[in-house]
Amino acid sequence: MNNFECSLHEFTHIQVKYQSTAFFFTKNREYTRYISSYIDNFKLILKCANSMMFIDPHLDPTKPRYQDLQRVFSSMAGCSPAPPIEIHRVCYVRSGRSRQVLPESDWKSCFHALSSSLLSAGLFADVFIWDNFHDRFIISDLVGISAQNGFDTTTHPGSKTTWNRLGRQERDDVQREFDPASGRHNLK
């Protein structure tokens, strides 16, 4: 795969030329919950972003509904320079009375599943395990997205999700919220 570099001028041209950047022109978009739909609609963002944050309290690459996340990282192969990637999730599984906090060793094992796809794409990710949060976001230096189901995929035909573009201030607020120095959440 060729290296794909993107200057501001080129990105603006790409933004106008290709439908996959339609997200910049509309506030809300509905997608089928297939990884191919996500990648097709965000490939230019994935290729041009200088930083990426995947914020999803339930993101678990060992679960079938998140195993397609590896394809997102594969689609970022060849980015030059490789953008820093952050993955944020909560420290527990299940909810209510059945909530179970998992030890750090379990999380290391869980996210080790992503390491080969990241390495083969020339990428590296920092994983942050937090005490508690609820909403899902995809944050980059180019755009912020409130993503109802994150990159949780399904094989059910017709299953849809709506993603909402955040304003610059909202995007910056989310980015600050998940900065370990902010103190808004506790790292586990």
List keywords for this structure.
188 residues, seven-stranded mixed β-sheet, two-stranded antiparallel sheet, 5 helices
Written account of the structure:
The chain is α+β, with helices and mostly antiparallel strands and 188 residues long. The chain contains 5 helices and 9 strands; from the N terminus they run αβαβαβββαββββα. The protein has one domain: MITD, C-terminal phospholipase D-like domain (Endonuclease, Chain A). The strands form 2 sheets. It has a 7-stranded mixed β-sheet, with helices on both faces. The radius of gyration is 16 Å and the shape is globular. The N terminus is likely disordered.
Task: Note the topology.
Blueprint: H1 8-17, E1 28-32, H2 35-48, E2 52-55, H3 69-75, E3 85-90, E4 92-93, E5 100-101, H4 104-120, E6 125-130, E7 137-140, E8 144-147, E9 160-166, H5 168-177
Parallel strand pairs: 2-3, 3-6
Antiparallel strand pairs: 1-9, 2-7, 4-5, 7-8, 8-9
